[in-house]
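Hello again, I could really use a second opinion on something today. I've been staring at a protein lately and its backbone has me curious. Please have a think about how the structure follows from the sequence. I owe you a coffee for this, so here goes:
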Amino acid sequence: MTTQANNSLLNARVGEVTERIVRRSHDARQHYLDGVEAAAAAGPRRQRLGCANQAHGFAACGPGDKAMLRAGVGANLAIVTAYNDMLSAHQPYENFPEVIRAAARAAGGVAQVAGGVPAMCDGITQGEAGMELSLFSRDVIALATAVSLSHQTFDAAVFLGICDKIVPGLVIGALSFGHLPAVFIPAGPMTSGLSNDEKSRVRQLFAEGKVDRDALLEAESRSYHGPGTCTFYGTANTNQMVMEIMGLHLPGASFVNPNTPLREALTKAATERAMAITALGNEYKPVGRMLDERAFVNGMVGLHATGGSTNHTMHLVAMAAAAGIRLTWDDFSDLAPVTPLLTRIYPNGKADVNHFHAAGGMGFVIRELLGGGLLHRDVETVLGQGLDAYVREPVLAPDGSLAWRDGAVASGDETVLRGVAAPFQPTGGLTLLTGDLGRAVIKTSAIAKERHVVEAPARVFHSQEALQVAFKAGELTGDLVAVVRFQGPRANGMPELHKLMPPLGVLQDRGLKVALVTDGRLSGASGKVPAAIHVTPEAANGGPIALIRDGDLIRVDAVAGTLTALVDPREWVRRTPAEADLAPSHRGVGRELFEAFRSSVGTADTGATIFGTP
């Protein structure tokens, strides 16, 4: 593949990064594609199944669907769903299968729910034992997706999932059946409630003891108030951006609210596209070929340009590996300087994703990045027209049918969304840190410039609860770098540590220099406190973070891209890594079932996955 030849306007750095990914991945990618081609060459397998196998596959279908499947003249579409009615983002999916079945029948085929995958809510498990299963749930979802498709009676698949680990898990699973076309169907964000800024303010007041639990619960309930994705720009909504910019959604589908006529029309249209791109027709688009190196580079650029979730420095790596493509944190780092930050969405600003969508949304972002030569224009998409089609937006025609119009050419609100000529900042929202403490990522898009460098004494903790105890006891009175370790994937599944943010934010607001260094995660809620996260090697692997002691001077420098302990080297080499009793994190709430995951999981910079790297 020669990227520059395909796009003469492509930014040189984007082209260079893409070319080196192609070279680095060559053998593994070719091996993967050989498998896709072999499966595709065999053709749809349904008609070669034994009679008993086939009969089992359509036994519960209605007469029309049964006749269609028996004759084998139309496509059979798999629905893989993450529906449950406990997650607000996934509750709207309850009625999607019937809409999809009807659309499939109208297109001359059949749709069946092939399987369900688990979908946990990080918002419910924050600070609880269940959060230690969160990251591993991504790989469970990938496994469940593979099981769902293993009956080999399908010609394409649609995937119903939105939230944090669910979309990456579905993508990994879909790529294990890379010869099948795949279309992802979102359900959209909930309507705007209490502003994210006000919600954050009440959380800090609660941390200081200035409001009670009833006041906090009221604020949270007004924020998370109905069906749909949470409206801040965390991992769930970053997933939607990634799916659209990588061509797995229909244009403009990501941020249309649930339970609206436009959302239903988009669901029907997505089904029609899935039916149109099977091997039975003339537009065959297997997902394993579609998601190539260029698509993943587009995903990384989108992540930088929108200030998206830090979780995707792991998820994109793991997703790419499933397609035989090897991404590294250096790829993210080298794209950051040439990618401008185009959005201010909470926690990087006051607006939510509904405001972003109204201001021009994904169509405007893609138009601007294409115009700046920062995206590969000629990639494959489920629509089949390259990324130029993704500057359009969906609307309902007067007769209620789905129509498309040119998207915004100017921002509707420059406090939320800007073009490449006048971005919020000239570089992306994520920075790679390296140094004698290992490698880490930091999200700078929400941090005031005067806090991009913090040098302060370490306070070491082995849990976020221990830090909260120290805060409530009034022990944290000076500048500090809070080191929260033994939170990596091998230690306890790498939970998100959101409960650190209110107390650290309070300390920062009191005028202290504050930063966080951890081998755990913060995700899209990384906010105004500088946080070096995903530190690797992790403490449980004897990484240098395990050598830090209270009082050590630590420097977190997002300008130079360094993470260092300013300790006498002679003293440093004499130290032995600290140890922690991790047994309490390995029992209860199902955690004992995940021992195999903890023992085999890879490092954060290789995707923190049990599936290995190409």
Summary: The chain has 23 helices and 14 strands.
